[in-house]
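sry for the spam today, last one i promise. struct tokens for design, 302 residues
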């Protein structure tokens, strides 16, 4: 691999994490006006159109019925389950809480893999898990009285974490048969079967309350957060190791927290700052071990 390719992959990966870091602020603002189901329908419809155009231009839309059935099943976990939990969670808690909790997905994936016999227990991983979730308890426990934070919202986000973790543990075999762009496109497409009737039940009364800013935020969530960010991450996966990509997720909470302070004017309490640092350190402690000991597993796409 050339240095130019590696640099492009690193830039693509950082771009995806930067976009996702800001996504929680956009969601928080939009759900104050747009019902959750309608927002998810609009977001994934935009993403499906864009990804469908790209996949269609490359002749990648045709898949065997067996693979389509599997992708339809995975859709129930993500994006349906994951984004319902995440979006409702953002509506009831602070964006920084969401990004910090979402950053623990690699830990949940490891625990599920451990139960399924796909991973071995290790002392370093055990310490990392204990540290990360200790930080979460500190954040959640110390900021329940803050405006915009709630235990309900945090628990809903943990539901999203579980959906993502179970999907990740099941999707490994699927990616041996389909390309990432095919997986992403069809799951967004199939999710519309669920979100379309839910959005229809919301009615259209909320449209009158939309502003130009809300419209731009919806475009940002659909075009950048759902379509472009996923494609950027998949490009990075084609040229970097899986562990390198996983480690990069640790910067998402930092981006969200800084954006929340700079844009929303949210105060950073000492307990919240310490909890954030502890959580990120716990996740990084597990993932960095993979970088130092593991071999790159990223391969060229088919």
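last one done:
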């Amino acid at each position: 691999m050339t240095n130019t390719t590696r640099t492009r992959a690193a830039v693509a990966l950082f771009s995806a994490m930067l976009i996702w870091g800001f996504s929680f602020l956009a969601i928080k603002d939009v759900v104050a006006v747009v019902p959750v189901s309608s927002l998810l329908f609009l977001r994934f419809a935009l993403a499906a159109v864009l990804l469908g155009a790209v996949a269609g231009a490359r002749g990648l839309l045709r898949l065997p019925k067996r693979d389509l059935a599997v992708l339809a099943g995975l859709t129930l976990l993500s994006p349906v389950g994951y984004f319902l939990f995440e979006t409702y969670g953002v509506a009831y808690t602070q964006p920084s809480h969401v990004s910090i909790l979402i950053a623990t997905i690699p830990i949940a994936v490891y625990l599920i893999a451990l139960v399924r016999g796909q991973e071995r227990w290790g002392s370093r991983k055990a310490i990392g898990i204990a540290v990360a979730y200790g930080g979460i308890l500190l954040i959640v426990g110390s900021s329940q009285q803050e405006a915009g934070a709630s235990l309900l919202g945090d628990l809903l986000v943990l539901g999203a974490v579980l959906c993502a973790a179970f999907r990740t543990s099941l999707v490994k075999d699927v990616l041996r048969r389909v390309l990432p762009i095919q997986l992403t496109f069809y799951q967004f497409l199939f999710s519309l079967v669920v979100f379309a009737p839910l959005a229809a039940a919301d009615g259209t009364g909320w449209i009158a309350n939309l502003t130009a800013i809300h419209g731009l935020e919806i475009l940002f969530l659909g075009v950048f957060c759902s379509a472009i960010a996923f494609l950027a991450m998949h490009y990075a996966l084609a040229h970097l190791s899986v562990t390198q990509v996983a480690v990069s997720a640790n910067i998402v909470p930092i981006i969200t927290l800084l954006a929340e302070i700079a844009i929303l004017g949210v105060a950073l309490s000492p307990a919240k700052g310490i909890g954030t640092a502890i959580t990120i350190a716990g996740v990084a402690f597990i993932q960095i071990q993979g970088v130092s000991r593991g071999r790159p597993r990223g391969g060229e796409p088919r």
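Residues 3-293 form one domain. ok im logging off now
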